[in-house]
Amino acid sequence: MFEFITDEEERGQVGIGTLIVFIAMVLVAAIAAGVLINTAGFLQSKSQETGQQSSKQVSDRVQEVATVGNVNGNQIDIVNVTVTQAPGAGEIDIQNATVTWIGPSGTYQLTSTTQNYSQTTLSGDQFSYISVKDSDGSDNVLNDADDRLNLVFDVSTFASDLNEGDEVTIKINTMAGATTSIRFTVPESLSNKQAVEL
């Protein structure tokens, strides 16, 4: 009628219960560790990607070498800006760059043509380029510290020609988001000159 449970049987049941609780805790800890490892890996890859993009926004920009204006009468009708890679910059495709021209007749957003200046006719919202020095034939891409490109702004196609004393700011924004500002003032006298350094 009556069953008597001995101390050994009680200890066996308690031991099995403890074992089940221990296994459950190990499983929960393993799942939590897996989630933490996955989250840490995701955050690490995101932070690396963000760091690379931030670095490109700072370094992947052009650097001005010289700015020259073509004199036509007593006005400047074409501006040539010679650029190269800034120190530490990667490849810069000038066809993917955008330019903001801020001059006496207004502000203009310009995009690059897909052809060299000698092979194209510019429309009102475009600038072009001429490869000055290019060791590997990449033409519109600055991919070497020795590369040089002339950015050609035919001012008469999108604004009025520049007069003596006019001030202009050109902001060149590369595909990576890096911006270079170039400011110049037209000399006070353009008479008897064919070109002037700006």
UniProtKB/TrEMBL annotation:
Which keywords does UniProt give here? Archaeal flagellum, Cell projection, Cilium, Flagellum, Membrane, Transmembrane, Transmembrane helix
Q: Which InterPro entries match?
A: Flagellin/pilin_N_arc, Flagellin_arc-type
Record flagged with keyword Zinc: no
Q: Could you name the Gene Ontology cellular component terms for this entry?
A: archaeal-type flagellum
- Of which family is this protein a member? Belongs to the archaeal flagellin family.
Q: What does this protein do, in the record's words?
A: Flagellin is the subunit protein which polymerizes to form the filaments of archaeal flagella.
Q: Any idea where this protein resides?
A: Archaeal flagellum
List, in alphabetical order, the Gene Ontology terms for molecular function in this entry: structural molecule activity
- Segments traversing the membrane: 12-37
Q: Does the keyword Membrane apply?
A: yes
- What this protein is called in its record is Flagellin
Q: Which domain of life is it from?
A: Archaea
Q: Which GO terms describe its biological process?
A: archaeal or bacterial-type flagellum-dependent cell motility
